[in-house]
Model the fold of this input.
Amino acid sequence: MDLSQTEEYFQKYYEKLIWETQNARAHLKLWERLERYKSSHLKELNQAPHFFTFAIKAHLDDALLTLSRILDRHEDSLSIWKFLDFAEQNCQIFSTEAFRQRMRQKPNYDKHWTKSHEPITIKEIKEDRQKLERLEQTVNNLTTWRHKVIAHIDRQFLLTGKIASKEYPLQRQQLQEVIDTLFKILNRYSRAYNSSTFLEKFVGEDDIQYVMDSIRFDIQEREKQLEALRKQTSDKG
Done:
């Protein structure tokens, strides 16, 4: 594989995985927000209870499935593991010299950029693998959820009568830790490659609040209309 193809593969791998990671975070945040609204915006949620019940479940399921894809161990899958293997096999694209040559092609090139450059070596790749290995229990539980509950219905597990959330617990903080770790790892390589990083927060993250505000406004307007109708009826009586 020549250098241009290696760089092309890196960019495609990085972009796909970082987008997947951001999507996992987006679904997790929307699930968290909707779960909190059960106590603070119950009146609004009850305007369409079935829709919001399914929406809450869908966001959690998608967060878990997306993380499972990123952490998949299947030989043919693009995963964070395969990404690190690729980086290890092509460390030269993360060297300071490769970075200098790449950045020189930018119209606003500044030679001082290379002074703060941190290359990726086997040492950094080993550290990143260790970060993921420290999350092994959470990753294993996540994989089990995918295989037994979300992507497949495990017949034998179903017949045991066991509950996945008790047998293979996944706490919100654990999922967030996995997402944070993925962002840090992926952006580390992008920073070494061309000094760019990907923002964790997604555009429109607060859209759900606008939805709640709109529903609340509609409720208030209907209540005003009913109150006006009651008053009108009372005056006529």
Remarks:
- The chain has one domain: 3-205.
- The chain has a mean pLDDT of 91.
- The first helix runs from residue 3 to 40.
- The chain has eleven helices and no strands.
